[in-house]
Design a protein that fits this description.
Length: about 230
């Protein structure tokens, strides 16, 4: 066999081996390939439309106010059991709770509870009957280039609240009402019944906070795989 022929044969065998090694059924898949693809998609800059921002405003408002309502029920239940109305009265300000304030900072939001019959005059607002209808849909709006607002009714749906906001002499003990009026001389927040709207949550949010919440809400997260064995 001539040297030239031997070289051609060796080259042919080498190319054949390389092609075989690159066949589709022998390609090794990248480890965590799906996770890498998901991470790359999450890092892709996406345009957030005005409708997306309004949707995110509702999501963010729901998250903030539900957290506040949930923690308020828990705190008031503990305080009422421990020391009655006297112990619970200073804590009926859920917008000031640490966890609520922390979430508000993330959203760049300011949350307030407003009513036409306030305990604290600073919380009075001219609300319409539609605003106070228990079945009113959440109201979201863009009130400025960088400002979004959220509003929903606050409904008295926990009997515990009647001890401070129910009917005096029936739900509220006279001694407890004396404590309330001592701290809030202009109190109007009594006479409510279960299922009645007491006021509204009003939340104002900055556009950057709403956009960040939208990004977090729509980010894709890999679900952990279940073990087969």
């Amino acid at each position: 066999m001539s040297p030239v022929f031997r070289r051609l044969t060796a080259t042919t065998l080498l190319l054949t081996g390389l092609l075989s090694a690159c066949s589709s059924d022998q390609i090794e898949h990248i480890k965590n390939g799906k996770k890498i693809a998901r991470d790359l998609e999450n890092m892709t800059v996406k345009r957030i439309l005005p409708a997306d921002l309004l949707r995110a405003t509702r999501w963010a408002g729901d998250s903030l106010t539900r957290q506040a309502d949930r923690e308020l029920r828990q705190v008031l239940n503990e305080k009422l059991q421990a020391g009655g109305v006297a112990a619970a009265l200073p804590y009926c300000r859920p917008e000031t709770f640490a966890s609520v304030d922390s979430l508000a900072r993330v959203l760049q939001a300011t949350a307030r509870r407003r009513t036409v019959r306030p305990r604290n005059p600073a919380n009075q607002a001219p609300l319409t009957p539609t605003d106070l209808a228990p079945d009113t849909a959440r109201q979201v709006a863009r009130t400025g280039a960088d400002v979004f607002t959220y509003q929903r009714p606050i409904v008295l749906n926990d009997a515990l609240c009647l001890r401070c906001h129910g009917e005096v002499g029936k739900d509220i003990a006279p001694a407890d009402y004396a404590l309330i009026t001592k701290q809030f001389p202009q109190d109007k927040a009594t006479g409510y019944r279960l299922g009645q709207a007491m006021g509204v949550w009003q939340v104002s949010m900055q556009r950057t906070g709403v956009a960040e919440f939208y990004t977090m809400k729509t980010r894709k997260i890999m679900k952990p795989r279940k073990k087969l064995f």
